[in-house]
Every structure is written in C-alpha cells, then in structure tokens.
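User: I've been trying to design a sequence by hand for this structure and keep getting stuck. Would you show me what you'd pick, starting by listing the structure so we're on the same page?

Assistant: Good idea, let's start from the same input. This is the structure you sent:
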C-alpha cells in the first residue's frame, strides 16, 4: 500500500456560524469570539490546506510517471479482497481479469503474480501476443495458486523476441487441455500439471531461434484423458533455426493415459535436445511410448513401465529402464551427415535393447524377460543399406532364451550385413547368440558365455574366438587344405638342395661342390628358407 501524502491530518474546526455584525480581529478572543474566529487562525488553516493541495499534486505527479512492473491477481473464493490485489477474480470467468492484468504490463513487460486460490479459464484463451509487451514476462504463483483450464491456454510471441518465465503455478484441466508456448524463450519450472499437456513450438521462418527449458516440474495424468493425439509433453521446431536449445531436466512425469509421454522432433541442424535426471513412469497395461528424434542427449533418467523408448540419431547414456524396450535408431543409408546413434552404459531390467541402423551399443547391462532376447539387431526399413547395421560390444546380457539376436522381421528384406558382435558377456541364455538367415558377412568374435552355442543361420559370417570355439581361441578349425609339395625325401648330413630341372619343386640332394666356389653356410640357409616359404604358400 502507498503512504498517505499528508503526514498530519488538517483540523476540520473552522467556524461555520458567522452572524451579521460580527467582525474579524487578529485573535477571535479579543472581540468576544472563539479562537477559530481570529484572522490569524483562519489564514493559518487556509495556508495549511494550500500546502496540502500542493503536496497531493506533487504525489500524483510522481505516481503518474511510474510504470507498472508487477500486477497481482487474487481470487475472492480464497478470501482475497480488492484491497489485497490489483485484479480480483470471482473464480467463475477469470479470463478477462487475467488479460487485463497482462495488459497493464504492455510496452515494458514485468511479472504477473497469482495469489493462492483457484482461477477458472472457461474460454479458449489465446492471450495477447507477449512480444507486444515490449519486454519479458513472468507468471508466478504463490503456494496454492491454481489455474483450472476447461479450454486450451496459449502464450506466444509472434512479432518480437520475448522471454517467458512460468513458475510456481498448478495447471489443472477439467477434461483435457493444452498449454501452448510458441515462439518464446520459455522457462517453466516448479509447476504442477494435472491432465494438462504442454507443447513447446517455435523457430518459424523469419523468427529468431527459440529456447525451451522445462525443469523441476510435476506432471501427472489419469486414464480418463483421451487416448489419441500427440504426446503429454511435446517439443517441435518448424525450421532449423541455428542455436535453438531444449532442456528437460529434473522433472517427475507419471502418466496413466494411453498417449506418448514425450515427443521431441527437432529438424535437422542447429537444434539440440537435452533430457537429463528425470523420473518418467507409465503403466504397463497402457501403450505409452517415448519418442525423441535427431541430435539429442538422453542421460541419467529413470524410465519405468514405458512400453517403448524410441530414440533416433541420438546418444542414450547412463539411464535406468525397467519393464520396457529401449529402441535406438541410427542412420539407415550410411550417410555421415546424419547424427549417429549410441546406447552406452544403460541398465535395462526386465526389458530389451533394440538397435537398428548405424548404432553403437556398448557397456550396457541387460536383464531380459523370459520370452524375449536381451539385445536385438534389426534393419530399420526396407530401403536401408544392408551394411548399415549395429555394433554391439562389451555388454552384459542375462536372460533365459537368446542373449543377442540378429533378428529377422518384416523390414529385413533384402539382406542385412556387416554387424559386429564382440566382447560381450552373456549369462543364463540357452542360446547366447543367434544369427538369422538374412544376415551375412558379420563378425562375431571374442564373446564369453558359460553355456550354449552360437546359432548361425546366415551366410559368410566370421565367427571366431568365442567361448564355444575349440582349441586356444584361434577360431573354429576349417577344412584341411591340399598338402604342399614339401622337400624331397632322402639326403644326408652336409648335403644341399640343387635344381634338377627348370620345373617347379624339382630339387635333389647333392654333396656341396669342393673348392672355393662352393655355397657358403649362409647361402645354404637362405635357400632352405625360400624353399620352406614356397611350400607353405602352396599349402592352402
């Protein structure tokens, strides 16, 4: 509240009972009247009133030049009054009051504060273009402030760059609603979303790059939400504005709806997605998926009961996945200008890893369910290059059926080739590695498993140095080649070999020539070395 401009109240005791014949004297008492009838007293009060008027004028002059940078909205249902806030909402149709509050920040930006209580948005509210505010905007909720959405709520900045900071608010949908944040540098933190989907979109042609940060939020849905439509949390950029960044970090997201939980589809070039330290949980009986496409880092998250984590052209590092499939997709045509894919040091419990395209799968721990393989290598599309295949190295796989499978599915015609499966430890699987018929020219080497044998239904695959190889690990012994020509039999100590004719391998043992022209021991040794080398080359 502002201070009163008059520090001392003016007395309201000037006489109003003048009668005919009375006079004014310097002091009222000198002519038989009260003190208040004296001229000096009267003029003193008149001057005080004049000074008060001047002070009031000065105060209004100061107020009129001050811009509003903070508007407060209160809810009457929570006990707030008009004296507590700038805009009082009745809890029934609060759209107009919210828009009026934002309009007070027009031309310079500022903060809109929601006091505790419920604010109901009944219309499909597309709030004014925040870029027209002329500055950045913050929407902050005091503890207990809740926006109840019956329709979608949209904040955008179509005409000018704008930073939007939303914090401390609860968004609750009656039915299902969407919070749109478009063309903004948007920071959303410490908020709660109940049955409300959130979409970040931006970077349309001609507009600057947009950055999105979604952190420390709680997002939860029920099974009553619609089962069709895009994901609960969606990030999409229409063009490849250079420098656009998206970070989704330290959130708790739990969904019972049959919807994708996250969809992030940045375009090629210039855009990056960082997903870290989130706890994301679904429900096994529903068909939730999780989709990230192109150039993302997905690190140190917990995923529980998600049917399928579909992550393409990205790095997936250090995540914990329980009761789901981690599907990592790499380029399928060998193009080096498309980001490669990797799954490194993830822990998968009661689930599998599926790798397609140019993908590196290394250092993961996979505990497979009883009816599935631990790691699948698959072809990503019918038109994928046969040699665009995964590299699976240094993983620990435990299960009951197949540990690592080069799999056949509807996308794998024509053939697949050139997969690498090496240095893995496979435990508890009746078939440690299985290669289906459509795979060829793969290298399966140096894998360790205590039981079972590799099943190779393919062609031309090089399999060596694995636990079931015989011998010292030099690989499976091939068929015996034809014998070499060898040395002629016979001979005795001190004799040397000499050509009997010009035909190959036609040697005989002879005594060395006598005299100084005989062969030296060094010449004899070199001749023997050449002969042995020729014999070895002809043996296979």
């Amino acid at each position: 509240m502002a201070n009163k401009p008059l520090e001392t109240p003016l007395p309201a005791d000037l006489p109003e009972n003048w009668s005919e014949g009375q006079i004014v004297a310097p002091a009222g008492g000198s002519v038989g009247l009260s003190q208040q009838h004296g001229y000096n007293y009267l003029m003193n009060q008149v001057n005080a009133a004049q000074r008060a008027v001047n002070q009031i004028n000065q105060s209004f002059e100061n107020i009129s030049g001050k811009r509003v940078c903070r508007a407060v909205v209160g809810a009457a249902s929570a006990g707030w009054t008009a004296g507590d806030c700038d805009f009082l909402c009745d809890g029934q149709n609060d759209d107009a009051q919210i828009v009026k509050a934002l309009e007070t920040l027009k031309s310079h930006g500022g903060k809109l504060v929601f006091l505790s209580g419920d604010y109901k948005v009944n219309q499909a509210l597309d709030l004014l273009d925040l870029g027209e505010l002329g500055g950045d905007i913050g929407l902050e909720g005091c503890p207990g402030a809740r926006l109840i959405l019956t329709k979608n709520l949209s904040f955008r900045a179509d005409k000018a760059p704008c930073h939007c900071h939303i914090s401390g608010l609860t968004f609750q949908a009656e039915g299902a609603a969407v919070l749109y944040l478009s063309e903004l540098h948007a920071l959303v933190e410490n908020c709660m979303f109940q049955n409300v989907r959130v979409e970040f979109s931006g970077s349309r042609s001609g507009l600057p790059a947009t950055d999105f940060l979604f952190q420390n939020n709680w997002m939860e849905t029920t099974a009553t939400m619609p089962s069709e439509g895009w994901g609960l949390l969606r990030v999409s950029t229409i063009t490849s504005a250079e420098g656009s960044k998206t970070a989704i970090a330290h959130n708790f997201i739990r969904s019972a709806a049959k919807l994708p939980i996250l969809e992030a589809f940045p375009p090629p070039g210039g855009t990056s997605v960082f997903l870290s330290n989130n706890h994301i949980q679904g429900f096994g009986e529903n068909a939730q998926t999780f989709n990230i496409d192109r150039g993302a880092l997905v690190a140190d998250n917990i995923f529980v009961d998600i049917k399928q984590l579909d992550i393409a052209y990205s790095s997936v590092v250090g995540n914990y996945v329980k009761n789901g499939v981690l599907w990592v997709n790499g380029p399928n045509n060998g193009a080096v200008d498309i980001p490669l894919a990797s799954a490194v040091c993830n822990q998968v419990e009661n689930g599998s890893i599926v790798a397609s395209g140019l993908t590196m799968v290394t250092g993961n721990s996979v505990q497979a369910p009883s009816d599935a393989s631990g790691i699948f290598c698959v072809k990503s599309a019918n038109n994928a290059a046969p040699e665009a295949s995964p590299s699976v190295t240094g993983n620990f796989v435990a299960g009951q059926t197949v540990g690592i499978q080069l799999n056949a599915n509807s996308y794998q015609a024509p053939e697949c080739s050139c997969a690498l499966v090496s240095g893995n430890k496979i435990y508890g699987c009746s078939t440690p590695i299985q290669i289906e018929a459509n795979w060829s020219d793969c290298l399966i080497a140096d894998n360790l498993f205590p039981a079972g044998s590799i099943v190779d239904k393919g062609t031309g695959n090089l399999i060596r140095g694995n636990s079931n190889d015989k011998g010292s690990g030099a690989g499976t012994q091939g068929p015996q080649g034809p014998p070499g020509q060898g040395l002629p039999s016979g001979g005795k100590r001190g004799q040397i070999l000499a050509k009997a004719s010009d035909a190959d391998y036609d040697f005989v043992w002879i005594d060395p020539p006598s005299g100084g022209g005989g062969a030296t021991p060094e010449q004899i040794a070199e001749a023997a070395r050449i002969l042995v080398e020729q014999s070895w080359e002809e043996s296979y």
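That's my pick for every position. To get oriented when you compare it with your attempt: The chain has three helices and 46 strands. The chain has a mean pLDDT of 81.
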